[in-house]
């Protein structure tokens, strides 16, 4: 039975990604390359590749030409088989969160800092914890320097004051507004060389989202109050939201975030994982209060 074109394209993308993950030269493949190798029309290849991205099986870059890579379930683990995998601390890393973990690892291994990640899911499912693991994994794999900053910024803290929210992300200069008595570094500059985790990103105003995607696109920004100077920092982004990104975020902003990772509700996790979490909570509390409260 002849395989359908979409399956052939998926298998070719998977083989290519596996080859380059193992070689350490993890880049990607273009629509044209696959079209020429498989003898399938380019527009059809593009359609199927984008469907794989929507299904969470592939990732595409923001470069020109666009590069596609397959989300491997074994390749990234093979690279680190002699190292302690920090994600093993995550309950469900090889179960209900396996796909989420592999996507996070793929983003870390992407050769550019442009592979931003959006973590979605209800409050309390572990988005902040996973963001911290992504940062630690990047350090362990040498993708960022050991001791690189991990800046956590909750957009909800300034949701009622868009100007102050923008000032705290991008920084401001002395005299730019009432109370600005000296120059102030924003979260972007504090995160230089590491990760900036923007939690509750849906609380970022439309203007704030626009300023952020301009930085993500061009790599330049200005502090509040600056008119000419343009600054540059090297930052990787992790975003998190409890809302539907399609409704809560600008389309232009969403396009700058190529990878979305959904964290399932606790009620949707297998019973064995939930029992492990309960046991772990008791164990951690036991250590905290120095009492034997579990057996």
UniProtKB/TrEMBL annotation:
Keywords: ATP-binding, DNA-binding, Nucleotide-binding. GO terms for biological process: regulation of DNA-templated transcription. The keyword Heme does not apply. It comes from the Bacteria. The keyword DNA-binding applies. Residues 90-274 form the Sigma-54 factor interaction domain. One of its GO terms (molecular function) is ATP binding. This is Sigma-54 interaction domain-containing protein. It comes from Clostridium frigidicarnis.
């Amino acid at each position: 039975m002849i395989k359908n074109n979409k399956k052939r394209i998926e298998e070719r993308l998977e083989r290519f990604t596996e080859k380059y993950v193992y070689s350490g030269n993890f880049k990607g493949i273009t629509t044209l390359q696959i079209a020429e190798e498989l003898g399938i029309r380019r527009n059809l290849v593009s359609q199927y590749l984008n469907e794989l991205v929507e299904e969470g099986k592939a990732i595409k870059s923001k470069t020109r030409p666009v590069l596609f890579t397959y989300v491997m379930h074994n390749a990234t683990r093979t690279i680190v088989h002699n190292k302690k995998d920090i994600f093993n601390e995550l309950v469900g890393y090889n179960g209900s969160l396996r796909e989420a973990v592999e996507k996070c690892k793929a983003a870390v291994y992407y050769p550019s800092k442009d592979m931003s990640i959006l973590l979605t899911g209800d409050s309390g499912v572990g988005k902040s914890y996973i963001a911290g693991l992504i940062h630690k994994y990047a350090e362990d794999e040498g993708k960022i320097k050991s001791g690189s900053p991990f800046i956590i910024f909750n957009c909800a803290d300034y949701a009622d004051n868009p100007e102050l929210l923008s000032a705290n992300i991008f920084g401001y200069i002395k005299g730019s507004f009432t109370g600005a008595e000296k120059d102030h570094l924003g979260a972007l500059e504090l995160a230089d060389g590491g990760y900036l985790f923007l939690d509750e990103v849906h609380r970022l105003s439309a203007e704030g989202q626009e300023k952020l995607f301009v930085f993500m696109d061009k790599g330049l920004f200005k502090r509040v109050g600056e008119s000419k100077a343009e600054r540059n920092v090297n930052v990787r982004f992790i975003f998190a939201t409890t809302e539907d990104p399609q409704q809560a975020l600008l389309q232009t902003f969403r396009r700058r975030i190529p990878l979305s990772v959904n964290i399932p509700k606790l009620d949707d996790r297998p019973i064995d994982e939930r029992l492990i979490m309960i046991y772990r909570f008791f164990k951690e509390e036991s250590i905290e209060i120095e009492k034997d409260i579990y057996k």
